[in-house]
Structure formats: C-alpha cells, structure tokens
Design a protein that fits this description.
- By secondary structure, this protein is of the alpha/beta class.
- It is built from five helices and six strands.
- The protein has a six-stranded mixed sheet with strand order 1-3-2-4-5-6.
- Helix 3 links the parallel strand 2 and strand 3.
- The protein is globular, with a radius of gyration of 17 Å.
C-alpha cells in the first residue's frame, strides 16, 4: 500500500514537472486565436509544423522566450499549422517556421536571426523600424 502511494506521488510530481517544462509559449488554436491575440497585448507568433526541422531547432528558444516575457506586455504564442489550418490559411503561412508580431492592430513580419536576444529585441523595439500591415478582427484580411 505504501509503495503504491509512493509511486502515485512520484508519478504526479513527474507529470507536473513535464507540464512545467512546456514553457511559457501559449498554444493558440483556431477556436481561441482571435479572442487571445486580438483581445489585448502584443503577440509574437510562431506558425509551425511539428515535423519541420527548423521548427524543432527553434522550439527550445521559443519556449524560453515565452518564459522570459511572462509578466510583460509581450505574449508569445505558437500555432501548429498541421491542426490549426484555418488560422494558418488566414495568415497565408507558406513556410515553417513563420514568425509574425502583432501590436496595436498591425502585423509585422520577422525576418531576423532566431536567437533569444534577437527575437526579444524585435518584440520590444525592433518591430517599430519595420512596416506593419493593418490586421485585426475588424480589418480586411490581406495577403501578408
């Protein structure tokens, strides 16, 4: 009986750690994308496919970025384009990973290096040096 209880506690702690290791990036779906992203704040968005090698290499940095920006005005989200097809189609995602930044009703394409510092710099200041495209729940969707 004690062994079973001990096993259950260890399993629960292990499972909780696995969930905690998921990181700070918010999983976005077709069902909740608009409410979360257009609902407030600035969002750095990664559109990806789980089988993509470049996406797999970016994943740890993306999760670290999500953790590093918690409690700030920047939210970090990720959209799996193999399951969330409508959202990826809406943003004309054609390659993986595609990184975009949403702030103040504008959408900005990210073309820089995929390092933690460069991504963080773009999300806090760098996007201001680029041209955004109007985007939001009430704007006409254009090819981005």
């Amino acid at each position: 009986m004690k062994a079973a209880l001990l096993f259950a506690v260890i399993f629960a702690l292990f499972f909780a750690q696995c969930l905690a290791d998921e990181g700070g990036a918010v999983v976005l779906t077709d069902a909740d994308f608009d409410a979360k992203v257009y609902g407030g704040g600035n969002w750095l968005l990664k559109f990806y496919a789980p089988w993509c090698g470049h996406c797999k290499r970016l994943a740890p940095t993306w999760e670290e970025l999500g953790t590093a920006t918690q409690g700030t005005e920047v939210h970090v989200g990720k959209v799996d384009c193999t399951t969330e097809k409508a959202t990826c189609a809406k943003f004309n995602v054609r390659g993986y990973p595609t990184v975009k930044f949403y702030a103040d009703g504008q959408l900005y394409d990210y073309k820089g290096d995929r390092s933690l510092d460069d991504l963080k710099r773009f999300a806090t200041e760098g996007y201001k040096a680029t041209t955004g495209t109007p985007n939001g729940p009430n704007s006409a969707q254009k090819e981005l």
